[in-house]
Design brief:
The complex is a heterodimer of chains A (381) and B (188).
Chain A lengths: L2 E6 H11 L4 E4 L6 H10 L6 E4 L3 H13 L4 E5 L1 H17 L4 E8 L5 E5 L4 H6 L8 E3 L4 H18 L3 E6 H5 L1 E6 L60 H17 L1 H4 L2 E4 L6 E4 L4 H14 L4 E6 L1 E3 L3 H7 L5 E6 L5 H9 L5 E6 L8 H10 L5
Parallel strand pairs in A: 2-3, 2-4, 4-5, 5-8, 7-8, 11-12, 11-14, 14-15
Antiparallel strand pairs in A: 1-9, 5-6, 7-13, 10-12
Chain B lengths: L2 E8 L4 H14 L3 E8 L7 E9 L15 E4 L2 H7 L9 E5 L13 E4 L1 H9 L5 H13 L4 H11 L2 H21 L8
Parallel strand pairs in B: 1-4, 4-5, 5-6
Antiparallel strand pairs in B: 1-3, 2-3
Helix pairs in contact in B: 1-5, 3-4, 3-6, 4-6, 5-6
The chains are: A alpha/beta (381), B alpha/beta (188).
Amino acid sequence: MARREFLTGNEAMAEAAIAAGLRVFIGYPITPASDLFEYLAEKLPSYGGIVFQAEDEIASINALVGATYAGAKAMTATSGPGFSLMAESLGLAAMLEAPIVIVYNMRTGPSTGIATGTGQGDVMQSRWASHGHYGVVVYSPWSVQEAYNLVVKAFDTAWRLRVPTIVLSDAVIAHTRELAVVYEPGEVKVADRKPPREPPGEFKPFKPDPDDLVPPMAFYGEGYAVLAESLAHDERGYYTTDPENYERLVRRLEGKITRNKHHVVSSEARYTEDAETVIVAFGTLARSALALVKDLRKQGKKVGLWRPVSIWPLDEEGLSKAVEHADRVIVAEMNLGQLYREIARILGPTGRKIELVPVLTPELPGPDELLGYFEKAGVEI
Amino acid sequence: MTLEIIIAGRGGQGILLTGYLLGKALVKKGYYVVNSEMYSAETRGGFSRSDLIVFPSEAEMDIIKVRKADIAIFMYKDQMHSYAEYVKPNAQLVILDGTFIDEPAKPWPRVLKVPFTRLAEEKVGTYRVANVFMLGVFSYVTGLIDPETMKEIIKTSVRPKWIEINLKAFDAGYNYAKENLERVEIKL
């Protein structure tokens, strides 16, 4: 039964994970993700799950990979400094196609930055933290309810595609309370693994299905030979330096996301039907941007908002549609231009003017302060 | 329409709990409520602020922090002065704890000054429930929250040993308002 609750983002994301079937949470405390950890420590055991504090973030993510190979839906929660430590094994998870879920609550960086402040400086970090070319999916919520929905969605994506999936939230959502409609386990739809179709002697752990490029998954202990090989491997999981195999593998690790894009991407457009200028913003900053758009509309200005919900990959079709009547696109984000690069890459060739409004502050600006950052950047609106 | 509420005072006055209880009651009533908090590192004596933004539905929600409050509740004078600029000049209602505040910081048109802290001490036996005494007054004066709903929420939100005294404080505040104060119609 749906329940109407008044929850912080961290509580809502914990509830979402429970509803999605979370069995194992492993983490290391860090602001602003510790209270999610505490909430699960109190609640998950009563649903039969395990909450474990590892010695650090490196151990946490490695153990998560193992948990998924044993068949458990597994998650961790951290912020920038912790995610940096997880970087190496994020690549391991991608290479082993381990469906881990990471809640990533952004705070003010770089380094330990301003621990209690919010931030949006980790757009690139969430995508490219580990070495080599690999695929991950990253979602970014703008409200407590959406944080809930996206954690559920993250489990679905992770297990459907066997990719590490990240919910890139922030300190504001983590600690803001809002109405959230929440459910019990079994009441939300989450994909499960595709089970092996061949008998143990014939099953190959990295042999993809040709339609979705995702290999069926056998768990440890089910009688199959399951190799977890971090080196470049063939369909059997054996190390090989064969160039053709290498190309096929790396293309597939990203290709299974693009091939199944319809399951993954999403975005929201507001007031864009006739918008001559479209503001692009994501996460909590998009809420201030929406209020600003409403103000500007009252002044008769044809301004709209486009907000990506999936950050990696972006909903490029949704973006193109939102800017159909616009000759100007302004990207406002709490860094010096990370999402901006992607928007410029996509829309640059169309000849539209693409401008950046950097917002560098540890506190989420309201619409009035946000307008101040437009002026500061010399961007007229 | 959207209703913006700012609640502020000194750390230790129960500002954050007040915002939480009020928010929960408004959610129960069917509104989409956003509640954000700001506080200094000290647990006593610093500042504490709780913002509530009440939207008619999720489709209308936007801001997270108060821009200009329609209702302000100041439990201590320093924070009233700090946050007076975040209150609309024609605010629907400004509530002040007369125990610590003599004069409103601005000429707001509808000011309700009640010595919540002194009355809580006198009528309930402890100043520590002044916040919930205030909620009782708020409930009667504004009609925004149903007293029975609020009492149910208190029962599930405060620590067991504090439930009874908080319920007593809420009733005391509600009855005090009924006997001494006029209702104010709040547009929402």
